[in-house]
């Protein structure tokens, strides 16, 4: 206990500042579990928070980092004891409660998930919020009842964090996977993760017809806007689309035609406040089903001190797969 290193976002007259320095335990916010953070990650939302591009941070000063894995140091929560491995994603951590870009975090035990057996802290953060969200998408599609026998599954933003994990998970679950990407140079990478076919994302990016040729039975969309509208228009009758992202935009310039003429369903995915039972089920399944070689292939690692450098790159759509941050 004592001092620890952390990134801090603060408000300035012209926007926001980002500094890396030492903090004191007394600075930590309220919580019943104190964690030695071993790993964090860089998600798209972290890029927005670090740069101030969108108002993600809702309290200043703030330690950013929307997820972390670590080891419990002290706990008054009945579920956790010193030495336990834990994961945290969501719940406003890194937005309104101090987050994962720090060697120490104090949080509510109710927000934590036990590190599943067989998963290391580094692997948990290679998955991170992005991979866990990909699993929520797959679970939503399965819950809807759509199956690999019904046709292929499309993944948009396939080379990114959510997309890469979604490709690997869908392939492992028996789907024929169509990976939509703007990066033809990542073809080998995507085929290596289990994609069967590539689609140029430009073909989905502009305003299209209310209904298009039926091409996929299921989809995971991280892009939103015209892309999501076109994904819906190309979904087979009674198929489903899990929508979780807004890389192209937050708008949805679509028609109701796919819903009322083809029975297509749009499934919304929110990873931030997912209730505990579903959270634990998703993490247990990730530990069981996600191919570790695929996970290693999609992971790049940076030290905590270099997190700022990844922020602009992820917003530019230039990060491939997942970025793990080694913290302590
Ligand atoms: P990444 O930046 O890693 O991946 C996004 C990918 O989308 C890029 O790699 C790129 O893939 C593609 N892309 C980027 N810009 C555009 C564009 N203008 N038009 C079309 N495609 C584009 O981000 P994450 O995977 O971390 O997050 C993806 C999205 O999901 C974000 O919007 C994020 O906020 C959201 N999200 C939502 C969650 C929730 O709870 N609902 C949880 C986690 C993430 P390629 O180069 O292959 O085309």
UniProtKB/TrEMBL annotation:
Residues annotated as domain Enoyl reductase (ER): 15-325
Gene3D superfamilies tied to this protein: Medium-chain alcohol dehydrogenases, catalytic domain, NAD(P)-binding Rossmann-like Domain
Superkingdom assignment: Bacteria
One GO MF term: acryloyl-CoA reductase (NADPH) activity
InterPro entries xrefs: Acrylyl-CoA_reductase_AcuI, ADH-like_C, ADH-like_N, ER, GroES-like_sf, NAD(P)-bd_dom_sf, Zn-ADH-like_protein
NCBIfam families in the cross-refs: oxido_YhdH (TIGR02823)
Name of protein: Acrylyl-CoA reductase (NADPH)
């Amino acid at each position: 206990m004592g001092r620890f290193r952390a990134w801090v976002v603060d408000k300035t007259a012209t926007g926001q500042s980002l500094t890396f320095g030492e903090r004191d335990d007394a600075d930590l916010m309220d919580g019943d579990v104190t964690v030695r953070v071993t790993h964090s990650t860089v998600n798209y939302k972290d890029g927005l928070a670090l740069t101030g591009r969108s108002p993600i941070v809702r309290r200043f000063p703030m330690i950013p980092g929307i997820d972390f894995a670590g080891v419990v140091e002290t706990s008054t929560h009945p579920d956790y004891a010193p030495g336990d491995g834990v994961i945290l994603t969501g719940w406003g951590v890194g937005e309104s409660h101090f987050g994962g870009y720090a060697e120490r975090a104090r949080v509510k035990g109710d927000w934590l998930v036990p590190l599943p057996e067989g998963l290391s802290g580094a692997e948990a953060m290679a998955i991170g919020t992005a991979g866990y969200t990909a699993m929520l998408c797959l679970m939503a599609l399965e819950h809807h009842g759509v199956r690999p026998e019904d046709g292929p599954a499309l993944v948009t933003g396939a080379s990114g964090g959510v997309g890469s994990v979604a490709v690997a998970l869908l392939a492992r679950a028996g789907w024929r996977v169509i990976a939509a990407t703007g990066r033809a140079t990542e073809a080998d990478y995507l085929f290596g993760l289990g994609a069967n076919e590539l689609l140029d994302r430009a073909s989905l990016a502009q305003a299209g017809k209310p209904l298009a040729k039926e091409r996929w039975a299921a989809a995971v969309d991280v892009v939103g806007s015209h892309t999501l509208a076109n994904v819906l228009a190309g979904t087979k009758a009674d198929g489903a689309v899990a929508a979780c992202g807004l890389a192209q935009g937050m708008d949805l310039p679509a028609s109701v035609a796919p819903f009322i003429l083809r029975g297509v369903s749009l499934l919304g995915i929110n990873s931030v406040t997912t209730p505990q039972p579903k959270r634990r089920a998703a993490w247990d399944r990730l530990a069981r089903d996600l191919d570790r070689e695929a996970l290693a292939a999609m992971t790049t690692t940076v030290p905590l001190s270099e997190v700022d450098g990844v922020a602009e790159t992820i917003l530019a759509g230039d990060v491939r797969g997942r970025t793990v941050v080694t913290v302590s």
